[in-house]
Amino acid sequence: MRIRGIQELPEPTFRTVDDAWVSLDSVVERVCAALRGDVSPVVAKCTIQLARHAAEQLDRVEIGPLATDVCFALRGERIVVTPIVVQAILMAYAGEVATLEVVQVEEG
Q: What is the pTM for the complete model shown?
């Protein structure tokens, strides 16, 4: 099942250390499971896409300000969440990427 995201933003594919390719949707499903279903896949995917896009513009990523910026950007997608929720999604995302041992990201 394909998870709706933000069409204008890329949907990366992740190559792991054991040369497997993992889709963004698969990572999103893992993030939602890590958060015990407290966040919908659509909210998680849009949050991750916006955060990845915002982080491209930054020299140094600080989770608090990034979460606040993403929180406000999500409103344009009609998604209303708090910065704490965004931060939880981003921390779970970082954890899943680390667990998968991602060595390459292919933007798509």
A: 0.93
